[in-house]
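LOG
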Amino acid sequence: MNDNRKAVPSVEEWAAYIRGDQSVQEREAYMEEMLLENELALESYMQALELVEAELPVLPRPEGFTEMVMTRIGGSETKVVHMEARDDRRRWYEHRLFHYAIAACLTLIFLSAGWFDKLSPGPEHVKKHAREASFSEELVKVTTGWIDRLKP
């Protein structure tokens, strides 16, 4: 890109852009980008639009044009709503009740196979811990011992 392309187009160049002249056809994309990004370019464009306003064609019935656009927009909205309504239906395997049924069946299978028995420690492990004092009991002993030492 050369420096000429990076510069903000002048009011005359904007007027040529509005008219659709061939002289600015190679810079059209750049000029449209400048309109979106640069406030100074937008101001120059608005000035050029005021200068060229008399040369622009006039709509014969602006109300009719507005109505035509609104009917086209309204027609496309109903299609979008209709498509969204069709997408709301869930498939049978996406239903919550199906997932609960699968979870219940798997739980019953695991129970009958004895898999949950393997998760818990055996009876010898329980007896070993029954002989030992629990952590909370040890904590109470330490705390009461500390308080007894403070008392005279």
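LOG (cont.) second protein
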Amino acid sequence: MRPPAALRTPAVRQFALFAVIGLANTAVYYVVYASLNVWLPYLAAHVVGYAVSVVGSFLLNSWITLRTRPTWRAFARYPLSGVANVVGSGLLLHLAVSRLGMDENLAALAAGLLVTPLSFLLARWAITSGAAATRRSASRLPPGEEPVREGASRE
């Protein structure tokens, strides 16, 4: 039995992959954090674990979710989706607990689920607009000059 046509659209496929990659990155963060916390103070382990998970999330979402080549421009914009996630879920969590009287643990799950579509849209914008900007700048080169690939030098 095939899912309805609306569930087979590229955006739905991308959102599902984004969610799966997010769950995998949560596991990566925790493994890195727990492993480093044996030798490092917990906040240092947290920063390294978070950095590893953001880089992994960016690369996987670029290659797998959006099927595009990662660029430095996109990488610079990508953390905006994480900021929106933290701020948005924090706001929803606060409102759910203080105004609606929800259980704190249930409210945290609900807030995270509700803000995920916004995080997805921002991540997709960051990755696709960064790649598009890189292509545009390469197309404006003087005749005969080769474009520089991300990470390459013009020696």
